[in-house]
Specification:
Mean pLDDT: 97
Shape: globular
Bound molecules: pyridoxal-5'-phosphate
Strand content: 15-25%
CATH superfamily of the domain at 100-302: Type I PLP-dependent aspartate aminotransferase-like (Major domain)
Number of strands: 15
CATH architecture of the domain at 100-302: 3-Layer(aba) Sandwich
Length: 440
Amino acid sequence: MKLDPRREQLLKRTFIDFHQMSEFVRNPLIIDRAEGLYYWDIEGKRYFDAIGGIFVASLGHGHPRVMEAMRKQMERMTFAPPLHGISDVTLDFIEKLGSITPGNLNYVKPFSGGSESTEAAMKFVRQYFKQTGHPHKYKFISRYYGYHGGTAGAMAASGTGSRKSKFEPHMAGFLKVFPPTYYRDRFSSWEECNRFTAQSIEDIIIHEDPETVAGVMVEPIGNTGGIITPTDEYFQIIRDICTKYNVALIFDEVITGFGKTGNMFAAQTFGVTPDIICCGKGMSSGAMPIGAMIAREDMAEAFWGEPEKNIQFAHGHTFAGNPLAAAVGIAVIDEIVENGLDKKAAVNGEYLANKLECLKKYGVVREVRGKGILRGVELTDAAIGTALKRTSLKNGIILRVDPTWFAVSPALIATQADLDEMCALIEKSLVEAIEESRKA
Ligand SMILES: Cc1ncc(COP(=O)(O)O)c(C=O)c1O
């Protein structure tokens, strides 16, 4: 895309997330509109949205049911003051969310994004332990390569050095373990590697003193680091460890929630019930900023008492629980549930994985990972990934490229024919990226 002087100047007045702007302006993407599985840029060029915006457009862009719910709610009310009350539609949303979660995860605090949700979960857990006789439990264990958001606490829990070191020092009390992918070559089997890395959490809890450890926060499938997909047993081990030491298990499902892995939540896909789920992104299909922290209902009892006790959850955001977002959230859940789109993601996910496996014939793919329609392809060479960023945009497809891996997460509504189209564009872009990197 050729930039006109005005837009070039305007791009100097802002930042695109995690981009060096001098590089972005060389290969810019300025989007004009979106519909279904596609974006169009300001020159009218069409792009296949292979990553749902950024794991967001679960039903595609501008889904009619979502638009209709928005329109209706807009005419009724677009804001309710969270300091004085709650909108009725937000109560409906809380009920709806509680109907799709595993176990008794029915306590819902709605938010406007993923970082608000993870940040709130950590505050909730710290306050919970203070009010249940464990005032010294404050530490959180999370993983290197993890990403839990851009706010101070969420960043402290995140494990990508390059995104964090510029802002040091971080908050105290955040400890890290490695995900299984980090050690995989040191073990004779993937299962054994998963057992070892899950077990390392217990080692840390014991050595830190269990009475100081409040929570373990993990993404069931880690995006940063390349769609890291542990075994079911990995999460069962972590679940048991958390129960044994009275440590809250927090699943950050900001990416994995809302059908992508073959169930509403990855917790259900892996067969493990955490104490808290944090979500965002796909729950509004991108129509409104949204998020939620969903906790075990009995944990919320620690916050219920007579006014003089002053033990309410001391937390809030002005736009959290927004009625428009709530109406959108209900429409998205209804659409997924009524059409079994999560189950469809499981079937189409296998189809997609097989197609991505075929890319191994080019000799530059080490592994294909993921569940459902959330898939990652690990490359053998970062130079190919770097070239793929360019060739994919040139060929009209938007991927998440890192550059030693790339991820796809098309909308749940994508048919197998759509996946064929997407994979053909990926293949073309990969072949060109291999050629480009060989020339360099
Ligand atoms: C796993 C995970 N958690 C939390 C966040 C933060 O969400 P948000 O960007 O909506 O604040 C993200 C964002 O990419 C994420 O991928």
